């Protein structure tokens, strides 16, 4: 990596299914230790079911600190089983994803269903809007995400996603390759999106601008 800027991260958020899936390679990929260790820690959705449980157990055994972020509604029924490591309970799904963003330096999606796709696309959408600049990747185990990646390229061709926004998502078939790509990632948002200001100060300026416009309109009406 000589001469190449490397993005340093200490906490990786892993999204994945709460079922084992059909392919045994999915569990094998979840059990790999390349994501974690004493210097890289795990953030995930909490509980200990199937892929999610395998990810958290592998991280724990590998010496990683494990943080599960889970809605109280899921813990109340005990359908997700106990979280290995620390656990933060939140009230809503939106609060959960916001807390994941706060606690993580990078994001990886393993095979999963609606929840996994929602989480990874939420992070992509926020990256596109310049809310954060953290790397996002798909671990394309046994070509699981091939159809999704092909669809995203199609969406680019149809001018619903810009070429620069498409580069916000990286993918690889192995954990080693994906970690390398995430470390080399450079956030390059669309020039228009780069102008967005998500700070409270930016919101206040917008509010003051709207107030000024209304006052100016009232003055013109009186004249």
TrEMBL record:
It comes from the Eukaryota. Keywords: Cytokinin biosynthesis, Hydrolase. Transmembrane segments: none annotated. Its EC number is 3.2.2.n1. Pfam families: Lysine_decarbox. GO terms for cellular component: cytosol; nucleus. The keyword Nucleotide-binding does not apply. One of its GO terms (biological process) is cytokinin biosynthetic process. It catalyses: N(6)-(dimethylallyl)adenosine 5'-phosphate + H2O = N(6)-dimethylallyladenine + D-ribose 5-phosphate; 9-ribosyl-trans-zeatin 5'-phosphate + H2O = trans-zeatin + D-ribose 5-phosphate. GO terms for molecular function: hydrolase activity, hydrolyzing N-glycosyl compounds. It is an enzyme of class 3 (hydrolase). The keyword Hydrolase applies. Belongs to the LOG family. Cytokinin-activating enzyme working in the direct activation pathway. Phosphoribohydrolase that converts inactive cytokinin nucleotides to the biologically active free-base forms. This is Cytokinin riboside 5'-monophosphate phosphoribohydrolase. It comes from Rhamnella rubrinervis.
